Input
Amino acid sequence: MKYSQLTFDDPNYKNAPPHLRRDQIVSKLKESFDFENAHLRASSNEGQGVLSKCHGYEAPDQAKDLGIYPYFREIEAMNGAHVTIGGRDVITVSSNNYLGLTKDPRVIESAKNALEKFGTGCTGSRFVNGNLSIHKKLEDDISLFLKREDTIVMSTGYQANQGTIACLLGRKDIAFSDRENHASIYEGCAVAPGTTVRYRHNDMDHLEHCLKKYSGVEGKLIITDSVFSMSGDIANLPGIVKLARDYKANILVDEAHGMGVIGEAGRGATSYYNLEKEVDIYVGTFSKSMGSIGGFVSAHPKVTEYIRHKASAFIFTAALPPASVAGVNTALNIMIQEPERIQQLRDNTAYMKKGLFGMGFQINNNPIPIIPIKIGDEALTLYFNQLLFDQGVFAGVAVSPVVPAFHAMIRTSFTSAHTQEDLDHVLRTFKTIGTDLGIIPQ
Output
Protein backbone atom coordinates (compact mmCIF):
# COMPACT_ATOMS: atom_id res chain seq x y z
CA MET A 1 0.00 0.00 0.00
CA LYS A 2 1.58 3.28 -1.10
CA TYR A 3 1.17 6.40 1.00
CA SER A 4 -0.74 8.12 -1.83
CA GLN A 5 -3.49 5.50 -1.55
CA LEU A 6 -4.10 6.13 2.14
CA THR A 7 -6.52 9.01 1.68
CA PHE A 8 -8.73 7.01 -0.68
CA ASP A 9 -9.21 3.85 1.35
CA ASP A 10 -11.84 5.45 3.60
CA PRO A 11 -14.75 7.17 1.80
CA ASN A 12 -15.31 9.39 4.84
CA TYR A 13 -11.75 10.65 4.83
CA LYS A 14 -12.35 13.94 3.01
CA ASN A 15 -15.31 14.84 5.20
CA ALA A 16 -13.55 14.04 8.47
CA PRO A 17 -12.06 16.80 10.67
CA PRO A 18 -8.30 17.23 10.17
CA HIS A 19 -7.32 15.56 13.46
CA LEU A 20 -9.37 12.47 12.55
CA ARG A 21 -7.82 12.34 9.07
CA ARG A 22 -4.43 12.45 10.75
CA ASP A 23 -5.37 9.59 13.08
CA GLN A 24 -6.63 7.51 10.12
CA ILE A 25 -3.37 8.02 8.27
CA VAL A 26 -1.25 7.08 11.27
CA SER A 27 -3.37 3.99 11.92
CA LYS A 28 -3.09 2.80 8.34
CA LEU A 29 0.65 3.47 8.18
CA LYS A 30 1.23 1.48 11.33
CA GLU A 31 -0.59 -1.52 9.93
CA SER A 32 2.52 -1.98 7.77
CA PHE A 33 5.12 0.11 9.56
CA ASP A 34 5.70 -0.45 13.27
CA PHE A 35 8.27 2.29 13.57
CA GLU A 36 8.51 2.53 17.36
CA ASN A 37 9.46 -1.14 17.66
CA ALA A 38 11.41 -1.51 14.42
CA HIS A 39 14.64 -0.31 16.04
CA LEU A 40 14.14 -2.35 19.21
CA ARG A 41 12.84 -5.68 17.97
CA ALA A 42 15.23 -8.56 18.64
CA SER A 43 16.35 -10.43 15.57
CA SER A 44 14.85 -13.87 14.99
CA ASN A 45 17.34 -14.78 12.28
CA GLU A 46 19.40 -17.72 13.48
CA GLY A 47 22.66 -18.89 11.98
CA GLN A 48 23.76 -15.41 10.86
CA GLY A 49 25.99 -14.72 13.84
CA VAL A 50 26.95 -11.10 14.30
CA LEU A 51 25.11 -10.27 11.06
CA SER A 52 21.74 -11.47 12.37
CA LYS A 53 20.80 -7.92 13.40
CA CYS A 54 21.33 -6.79 9.82
CA HIS A 55 19.10 -9.45 8.32
CA GLY A 56 16.38 -8.67 10.85
CA TYR A 57 16.41 -4.91 10.28
CA GLU A 58 13.21 -4.23 8.32
CA ALA A 59 12.38 -0.58 9.04
CA PRO A 60 13.87 0.87 5.82
CA ASP A 61 12.13 -1.71 3.62
CA GLN A 62 8.81 -1.10 5.36
CA ALA A 63 9.10 2.64 4.77
CA LYS A 64 10.11 2.10 1.14
CA ASP A 65 7.13 -0.19 0.53
CA LEU A 66 4.85 2.58 1.81
CA GLY A 67 6.60 5.18 -0.32
CA ILE A 68 7.61 7.35 2.65
CA TYR A 69 11.33 6.53 2.91
CA PRO A 70 13.10 9.93 3.02
CA TYR A 71 16.81 9.13 2.95
CA PHE A 72 19.52 8.83 0.30
CA ARG A 73 17.59 10.68 -2.39
CA GLU A 74 19.88 11.02 -5.41
CA ILE A 75 20.60 14.66 -6.25
CA GLU A 76 21.34 14.98 -9.95
CA ALA A 77 22.09 18.71 -10.09
CA MET A 78 22.27 21.76 -7.82
CA ASN A 79 21.48 25.39 -8.55
CA GLY A 80 21.32 27.81 -5.63
CA ALA A 81 18.58 26.66 -3.29
CA HIS A 82 17.20 24.27 -5.91
CA VAL A 83 18.20 20.67 -6.59
CA THR A 84 17.15 18.14 -9.20
CA ILE A 85 15.92 14.78 -7.90
CA GLY A 86 14.38 12.18 -10.16
CA GLY A 87 14.33 14.73 -12.97
CA ARG A 88 12.27 17.18 -10.85
CA ASP A 89 13.34 20.64 -9.75
CA VAL A 90 12.65 21.07 -6.01
CA ILE A 91 13.50 23.68 -3.39
CA THR A 92 15.87 22.30 -0.79
CA VAL A 93 15.37 23.29 2.82
CA SER A 94 17.72 20.58 4.07
CA SER A 95 21.07 22.10 3.10
CA ASN A 96 23.69 23.57 5.43
CA ASN A 97 25.11 25.68 2.58
CA TYR A 98 24.13 28.73 4.63
CA LEU A 99 25.91 31.37 2.54
CA GLY A 100 25.31 29.79 -0.86
CA LEU A 101 29.03 29.40 -1.57
CA THR A 102 29.14 25.79 -2.78
CA LYS A 103 28.76 26.77 -6.44
CA ASP A 104 30.18 30.28 -6.36
CA PRO A 105 32.28 30.66 -9.58
CA ARG A 106 35.21 32.11 -7.64
CA VAL A 107 35.27 29.14 -5.28
CA ILE A 108 35.11 26.71 -8.18
CA GLU A 109 37.89 28.52 -10.04
CA SER A 110 40.18 28.35 -7.01
CA ALA A 111 39.47 24.65 -6.66
CA LYS A 112 40.28 24.10 -10.35
CA ASN A 113 43.59 25.93 -10.06
CA ALA A 114 44.63 23.87 -7.04
CA LEU A 115 43.56 20.70 -8.81
CA GLU A 116 45.82 21.50 -11.75
CA LYS A 117 48.76 22.48 -9.53
CA PHE A 118 48.63 19.73 -6.89
CA GLY A 119 46.40 17.01 -8.35
CA THR A 120 43.36 15.26 -6.95
CA GLY A 121 44.73 14.30 -3.54
CA CYS A 122 47.65 14.43 -1.13
CA THR A 123 48.22 10.64 -1.09
CA GLY A 124 49.13 10.66 2.57
CA SER A 125 48.65 12.31 5.93
CA ARG A 126 49.90 15.80 6.65
CA PHE A 127 52.10 14.27 9.34
CA VAL A 128 54.25 12.53 6.73
CA ASN A 129 53.93 13.65 3.12
CA GLY A 130 50.60 15.44 2.60
CA ASN A 131 51.39 18.82 4.13
CA LEU A 132 50.85 21.38 1.35
CA SER A 133 51.61 25.08 1.41
CA ILE A 134 47.91 25.82 0.88
CA HIS A 135 47.03 23.93 4.07
CA LYS A 136 49.23 26.33 6.01
CA LYS A 137 47.81 29.34 4.14
CA LEU A 138 44.27 28.31 5.11
CA GLU A 139 45.30 27.76 8.72
CA ASP A 140 46.86 31.20 8.91
CA ASP A 141 43.81 32.84 7.36
CA ILE A 142 41.43 31.12 9.78
CA SER A 143 43.56 32.16 12.75
CA LEU A 144 43.58 35.75 11.51
CA PHE A 145 39.82 35.74 10.94
CA LEU A 146 39.00 34.27 14.34
CA LYS A 147 41.68 36.32 16.12
CA ARG A 148 43.18 33.13 17.51
CA GLU A 149 46.82 32.15 17.77
CA ASP A 150 47.03 28.92 15.76
CA THR A 151 44.86 26.54 13.72
CA ILE A 152 45.02 22.95 12.47
CA VAL A 153 43.09 21.99 9.33
CA MET A 154 41.78 18.42 9.33
CA SER A 155 40.04 16.28 6.73
CA THR A 156 36.55 16.44 8.27
CA GLY A 157 34.78 18.31 11.03
CA TYR A 158 33.96 14.94 12.58
CA GLN A 159 37.65 14.15 12.89
CA ALA A 160 38.39 17.60 14.30
CA ASN A 161 36.14 16.86 17.26
CA GLN A 162 36.88 13.19 17.62
CA GLY A 163 40.65 13.52 17.27
CA THR A 164 40.98 16.54 19.53
CA ILE A 165 38.87 15.20 22.39
CA ALA A 166 40.34 11.69 22.20
CA CYS A 167 43.91 12.92 22.57
CA LEU A 168 43.26 15.60 25.21
CA LEU A 169 41.05 13.65 27.60
CA GLY A 170 43.43 11.60 29.73
CA ARG A 171 42.64 8.66 31.98
CA LYS A 172 42.10 10.81 35.07
CA ASP A 173 40.26 13.63 33.26
CA ILE A 174 36.52 14.35 33.10
CA ALA A 175 34.57 15.68 30.10
CA PHE A 176 31.24 17.43 30.71
CA SER A 177 29.19 17.14 27.54
CA ASP A 178 25.77 18.57 26.66
CA ARG A 179 23.32 15.76 25.95
CA GLU A 180 22.47 17.24 22.54
CA ASN A 181 26.07 17.52 21.36
CA HIS A 182 26.99 16.21 17.91
CA ALA A 183 27.87 12.52 17.48
CA SER A 184 31.50 13.42 16.71
CA ILE A 185 31.84 14.81 20.24
CA TYR A 186 30.44 11.66 21.80
CA GLU A 187 32.67 9.56 19.58
CA GLY A 188 35.72 11.47 20.80
CA CYS A 189 34.64 11.06 24.41
CA ALA A 190 34.01 7.33 23.89
CA VAL A 191 37.45 6.74 22.37
CA ALA A 192 39.27 8.75 25.05
CA PRO A 193 40.43 6.96 28.21
CA GLY A 194 38.86 9.62 30.45
CA THR A 195 35.35 9.79 31.93
CA THR A 196 32.40 11.57 30.30
CA VAL A 197 29.51 13.10 32.23
CA ARG A 198 26.48 14.17 30.21
CA TYR A 199 24.59 17.17 31.53
CA ARG A 200 21.01 18.05 30.60
CA HIS A 201 20.69 20.18 27.49
CA ASN A 202 21.65 23.80 28.17
CA ASP A 203 20.92 23.24 31.87
CA MET A 204 23.47 25.25 33.84
CA ASP A 205 22.16 24.07 37.20
CA HIS A 206 22.74 20.46 36.21
CA LEU A 207 26.17 21.31 34.76
CA GLU A 208 27.15 22.96 38.04
CA HIS A 209 25.89 19.94 39.96
CA CYS A 210 28.14 17.72 37.83
CA LEU A 211 31.13 20.04 38.16
CA LYS A 212 30.69 20.23 41.91
CA LYS A 213 30.60 16.43 42.14
CA TYR A 214 34.01 16.24 40.42
CA SER A 215 35.47 19.45 41.83
CA GLY A 216 38.52 17.58 43.14
CA VAL A 217 39.53 16.42 39.66
CA GLU A 218 42.34 18.46 38.12
CA GLY A 219 41.52 17.94 34.43
CA LYS A 220 37.99 19.11 33.55
CA LEU A 221 36.79 19.93 30.02
CA ILE A 222 33.34 21.36 29.26
CA ILE A 223 32.31 20.53 25.69
CA THR A 224 29.38 22.05 23.82
CA ASP A 225 28.08 22.76 20.36
CA SER A 226 27.66 26.50 19.90
CA VAL A 227 24.53 25.88 17.81
CA PHE A 228 22.84 22.50 18.20
CA SER A 229 22.27 20.88 14.83
CA MET A 230 18.85 19.34 15.50
CA SER A 231 17.11 21.87 17.76
CA GLY A 232 18.83 24.99 16.44
CA ASP A 233 19.35 26.12 20.05
CA ILE A 234 22.27 28.39 20.93
CA ALA A 235 24.45 27.20 23.80
CA ASN A 236 24.38 29.19 27.02
CA LEU A 237 28.03 30.18 26.66
CA PRO A 238 27.90 32.95 29.30
CA GLY A 239 26.70 30.40 31.84
CA ILE A 240 29.30 27.85 30.76
CA VAL A 241 32.12 30.39 30.96
CA LYS A 242 31.10 31.42 34.47
CA LEU A 243 31.00 27.83 35.67
CA ALA A 244 34.32 27.06 33.99
CA ARG A 245 35.91 29.92 35.92
CA ASP A 246 34.30 28.89 39.20
CA TYR A 247 35.36 25.24 38.90
CA LYS A 248 38.65 25.72 37.01
CA ALA A 249 37.59 23.87 33.87
CA ASN A 250 38.64 24.35 30.25
CA ILE A 251 36.14 24.87 27.43
CA LEU A 252 35.84 23.36 23.94
CA VAL A 253 33.17 24.85 21.64
CA ASP A 254 32.15 23.29 18.33
CA GLU A 255 31.13 26.19 16.07
CA ALA A 256 30.06 23.99 13.13
CA HIS A 257 26.68 25.71 12.77
CA GLY A 258 27.74 29.02 14.30
CA MET A 259 30.54 30.14 12.02
CA GLY A 260 29.19 32.19 9.11
CA VAL A 261 25.80 32.45 10.79
CA ILE A 262 26.02 34.53 13.97
CA GLY A 263 28.52 36.80 15.68
CA GLU A 264 30.54 39.68 14.29
CA ALA A 265 31.39 38.96 10.63
CA GLY A 266 30.12 35.41 11.18
CA ARG A 267 32.71 34.45 13.79
CA GLY A 268 30.18 32.32 15.67
CA ALA A 269 28.52 32.16 19.07
CA THR A 270 31.77 32.91 20.88
CA SER A 271 31.73 36.29 19.12
CA TYR A 272 27.97 36.66 19.50
CA TYR A 273 28.49 36.60 23.28
CA ASN A 274 31.86 38.42 23.13
CA LEU A 275 33.56 35.47 24.80
CA GLU A 276 36.27 34.58 22.26
CA LYS A 277 39.06 34.93 24.81
CA GLU A 278 37.24 32.76 27.34
CA VAL A 279 37.06 29.68 25.09
CA ASP A 280 40.18 27.50 25.05
CA ILE A 281 39.46 25.44 21.94
CA TYR A 282 37.42 26.53 18.90
CA VAL A 283 36.41 23.67 16.58
CA GLY A 284 34.81 24.33 13.22
CA THR A 285 33.87 22.74 9.93
CA PHE A 286 33.96 23.68 6.26
CA SER A 287 30.85 21.68 5.35
CA LYS A 288 28.35 24.35 6.39
CA SER A 289 28.92 28.04 5.65
CA MET A 290 32.11 27.32 3.70
CA GLY A 291 30.21 24.97 1.39
CA SER A 292 32.83 22.23 1.18
CA ILE A 293 34.27 19.56 3.49
CA GLY A 294 36.91 19.54 6.21
CA GLY A 295 37.36 20.78 9.75
CA PHE A 296 39.72 22.74 11.95
CA VAL A 297 40.82 23.35 15.51
CA SER A 298 41.97 26.78 16.72
CA ALA A 299 43.73 27.19 20.06
CA HIS A 300 46.95 28.23 21.80
CA PRO A 301 50.03 27.10 19.82
CA LYS A 302 51.10 24.69 22.57
CA VAL A 303 47.67 23.05 22.40
CA THR A 304 47.62 22.77 18.62
CA GLU A 305 51.18 21.43 18.57
CA TYR A 306 50.17 18.71 21.02
CA ILE A 307 47.16 17.79 18.89
CA ARG A 308 49.29 17.67 15.72
CA HIS A 309 51.51 15.04 17.30
CA LYS A 310 48.96 13.10 19.34
CA ALA A 311 45.59 13.04 17.53
CA SER A 312 45.25 9.70 15.74
CA ALA A 313 42.38 11.01 13.62
CA PHE A 314 44.76 13.63 12.23
CA ILE A 315 47.97 11.60 11.99
CA PHE A 316 46.47 8.52 10.35
CA THR A 317 44.12 10.19 7.85
CA ALA A 318 44.97 11.46 4.38
CA ALA A 319 45.15 15.24 4.21
CA LEU A 320 42.27 17.38 2.96
CA PRO A 321 42.46 17.39 -0.88
CA PRO A 322 43.94 20.48 -2.59
CA ALA A 323 40.77 21.50 -4.41
CA SER A 324 38.80 21.54 -1.15
CA VAL A 325 41.49 23.53 0.66
CA ALA A 326 41.69 26.21 -2.03
CA GLY A 327 37.92 26.41 -2.39
CA VAL A 328 37.45 26.88 1.36
CA ASN A 329 40.11 29.60 1.48
CA THR A 330 38.30 31.54 -1.24
CA ALA A 331 34.93 30.97 0.42
CA LEU A 332 36.32 32.35 3.68
CA ASN A 333 37.56 35.49 1.90
CA ILE A 334 34.19 35.96 0.16
CA MET A 335 32.36 35.67 3.46
CA ILE A 336 34.60 38.35 4.95
CA GLN A 337 34.38 40.68 1.94
CA GLU A 338 30.63 40.26 1.32
CA PRO A 339 28.85 40.64 4.68
CA GLU A 340 25.58 41.10 2.81
CA ARG A 341 25.45 37.31 2.45
CA ILE A 342 25.19 36.90 6.21
CA GLN A 343 22.61 39.67 6.40
CA GLN A 344 20.51 38.00 3.67
CA LEU A 345 20.71 34.73 5.60
CA ARG A 346 19.48 36.50 8.72
CA ASP A 347 16.66 38.22 6.82
CA ASN A 348 15.53 34.92 5.28
CA THR A 349 15.65 33.23 8.68
CA ALA A 350 13.54 35.93 10.33
CA TYR A 351 10.99 35.81 7.49
CA MET A 352 10.56 32.04 7.72
CA LYS A 353 10.30 31.99 11.50
CA LYS A 354 7.70 34.72 11.49
CA GLY A 355 5.70 32.92 8.80
CA LEU A 356 5.81 29.46 10.38
CA PHE A 357 5.07 30.78 13.87
CA GLY A 358 2.12 32.76 12.52
CA MET A 359 0.63 29.54 11.14
CA GLY A 360 0.79 27.86 14.52
CA PHE A 361 3.92 25.72 14.24
CA GLN A 362 6.01 25.52 17.39
CA ILE A 363 9.48 26.75 16.42
CA ASN A 364 12.60 28.11 18.08
CA ASN A 365 12.89 31.87 18.57
CA ASN A 366 16.47 32.84 17.75
CA PRO A 367 18.50 34.02 14.72
CA ILE A 368 19.64 30.50 13.73
CA PRO A 369 18.55 29.29 10.25
CA ILE A 370 17.88 25.77 11.55
CA ILE A 371 14.12 25.53 12.08
CA PRO A 372 12.93 22.16 13.40
CA ILE A 373 9.20 21.56 13.10
CA LYS A 374 8.09 18.98 15.61
CA ILE A 375 5.43 16.56 14.40
CA GLY A 376 5.84 13.89 17.09
CA ASP A 377 4.75 10.56 15.65
CA GLU A 378 7.49 9.01 13.49
CA ALA A 379 5.23 7.52 10.82
CA LEU A 380 3.23 10.73 10.48
CA THR A 381 6.47 12.74 10.19
CA LEU A 382 7.70 10.57 7.32
CA TYR A 383 4.30 10.91 5.64
CA PHE A 384 4.38 14.71 6.07
CA ASN A 385 7.86 14.79 4.62
CA GLN A 386 6.80 12.85 1.53
CA LEU A 387 3.87 15.22 0.95
CA LEU A 388 6.32 18.13 1.13
CA PHE A 389 8.50 16.49 -1.49
CA ASP A 390 5.51 15.89 -3.75
CA GLN A 391 4.86 19.65 -3.59
CA GLY A 392 8.45 20.51 -4.53
CA VAL A 393 10.02 20.96 -1.07
CA PHE A 394 12.97 18.76 -0.14
CA ALA A 395 13.25 18.82 3.66
CA GLY A 396 15.22 16.88 6.23
CA VAL A 397 13.54 14.54 8.66
CA ALA A 398 14.75 13.39 12.08
CA VAL A 399 13.29 10.35 13.81
CA SER A 400 14.49 8.13 16.64
CA PRO A 401 17.18 7.30 17.55
CA VAL A 402 18.46 10.67 16.25
CA VAL A 403 15.80 12.35 18.39
CA PRO A 404 13.85 10.76 21.28
CA ALA A 405 10.90 8.53 20.37
CA PHE A 406 7.69 10.47 19.61
CA HIS A 407 9.71 13.66 19.11
CA ALA A 408 10.15 13.24 15.35
CA MET A 409 10.57 16.44 13.39
CA ILE A 410 10.88 17.97 9.96
CA ARG A 411 14.28 19.66 10.10
CA THR A 412 14.47 22.67 7.83
CA SER A 413 17.43 24.97 7.28
CA PHE A 414 17.62 28.08 5.16
CA THR A 415 20.34 29.88 3.24
CA SER A 416 21.13 33.24 1.72
CA ALA A 417 20.46 31.65 -1.70
CA HIS A 418 16.72 31.22 -1.08
CA THR A 419 14.70 33.79 -3.01
CA GLN A 420 11.48 35.39 -1.81
CA GLU A 421 9.60 33.17 -4.25
CA ASP A 422 11.29 30.09 -2.77
CA LEU A 423 10.41 31.05 0.78
CA ASP A 424 6.79 31.84 -0.04
CA HIS A 425 6.35 28.50 -1.81
CA VAL A 426 7.75 26.68 1.24
CA LEU A 427 5.41 28.56 3.58
CA ARG A 428 2.35 27.85 1.43
CA THR A 429 3.24 24.16 1.28
CA PHE A 430 3.72 23.83 5.02
CA LYS A 431 0.41 25.60 5.65
CA THR A 432 -1.54 23.41 3.22
CA ILE A 433 -0.18 20.12 4.56
CA GLY A 434 -0.17 21.22 8.19
CA THR A 435 -3.83 22.22 8.16
CA ASP A 436 -4.91 19.18 6.14
CA LEU A 437 -3.33 16.85 8.69
CA GLY A 438 -4.61 18.80 11.69
CA ILE A 439 -1.11 19.68 12.88
CA ILE A 440 -1.86 23.43 12.84
CA PRO A 441 -5.26 25.13 13.11
CA GLN A 442 -7.21 26.00 9.98
User: Anything to note?
Assistant: The domain at 105-337 is CATH 3.40.640.10 (Aspartate Aminotransferase; domain 2). The longest helix spans residues 340-359.
